Automatic annotation (TrEMBL):
Protein name: Uncharacterized protein
Disordered: region residues: 1-29
PANTHER family: PROTEIN GAMETE EXPRESSED 1
InterPro entries: GEX1/Brambleberry
Source species taxonomy: Eukaryota, Viridiplantae, Streptophyta, Embryophyta, Tracheophyta
Domain of life from the UniProt record: Eukaryota
Polar residues bias: start-end ranges: 1-18
């Protein structure tokens, strides 16, 4: 029933009524044929379910394998980096060793010069002391 255009409200009773032609078909229990048909599909459904589980496991295994390969490649790259760092450390260590040997040699040379200078200075003082004693005795 269409609304009355002259009225400002449309009665709720007219909107809540659904014509009988629009009612859904009532559900009835399935017949034995339908049940047999459903049961006949169960092996296919079970087989499909097992296939999906198998494919899921295959996918998980493939993902694990790819992650393992990825980690092994990262470990390989890290090993290369470590080898380069070890070479650099050895190079720096060798260079420092050579420089330390040079510094030790220079320190030894300085010690020898200082020692010789000290001996000369002591001889000079000893000579001056003898000269003073000789002057005093005169």
């Amino acid at each position: 029933m269409p609304p009355d255009l002259t009225s400002t409200t449309w009665p709720v009773s007219t909107t809540s009524r659904i014509p009988a032609s629009h009612h859904p078909v009532p559900l009835r229990p399935p017949s034995s044929t339908v049940c047999r048909r459903r049961i006949s599909f169960l092996p296919f459904i079970t087989e499909g379910h097992l296939y999906l589980q198998k494919m899921k496991l295959c996918g998980i295994n493939a993902l694990k394998n790819s992650m393992i390969l990825f980690y092994f490649s990262l470990v390989g790259d890290l090993k290369e980096v470590v080898v380069h760092i070890q070479r650099d450390i050895k190079t720096v260590g060798d260079s420092m060793s050579i420089k330390m040997q040079y510094l030790q040699s220079t320190a030894n040379d300085i010690a020898n010069v200082v020692g010789k200078s000290l001996e000369n200075h002591m001889q000079l003082l000893d000579g001056q002391s003898k000269a003073m004693v000789s002057l005093i005795n005169l």
